[in-house]
Amino acid sequence: MDGELLEEQLAYYRARAAEYDEWFLRQGRYDRGPEWNRRWFSELEEVRRELGSFGPTGQVLELACGTGLWTVELVRYADRVTAVDASPEVLEINRARLEEFRTETPVRYVRADLFDWRPDEAYDVVFFGFWLSHVPPGRFDAFWELVRSALKPGGRAFFVDSLRTETWAEKQLLGRDPQGHTTARRLNDGREFRIVKIFYEPGDLERRLADLGWRFSVRTTENHLLYGFGELRAQAIRRRRY
Asked: Is the pTM above the cut of 0.90?
């Protein structure tokens, strides 16, 4: 079973909360140099534009909301956002970021383990950033059932994640796992944790989602990011109703 692994993964993200943004913003040990960083930020902006074109309007649910780096994008479009995460540390940072952002869009925060949580209402859009790659293979179907259960009829979903490892050292760490879905992560203070990390190929992911009743378009940026958007097929919606 993967219970211990998921406990360690949560412990890692709780401990990493204060330094998570360093990775996203390419600061400190995550600074890969001007050209690499330029491509990274350019590709992030590409995904932001795609999210804007997608239009996460209405009632929006953000799963694994983290420190709010994507929450601030969602409130540009949504009428209301429900932001869910298991880490109280990242939720606190998220709240502070949204207060600084001065949005008028209401944001409801929910502390919950996504592997146990069930939504208490239905949403127009479900969004999750850099989360799918941390879902164990044996929980893939159940996670997408959670997404399905959170959506109103005609609702849509959007995600963004890592396309591939950033460094050769990370690739080697993944290679040490015979099952190919865990890696070691180290904090600034040297503590090390084992977490789930899976890199998907767009075509394979589209086919897996189609088998689960989704119509998804999965795309990549040039080097770093995987993203997708879609909705349930009509037949899947009917099965859910009846």
From this structure: yes
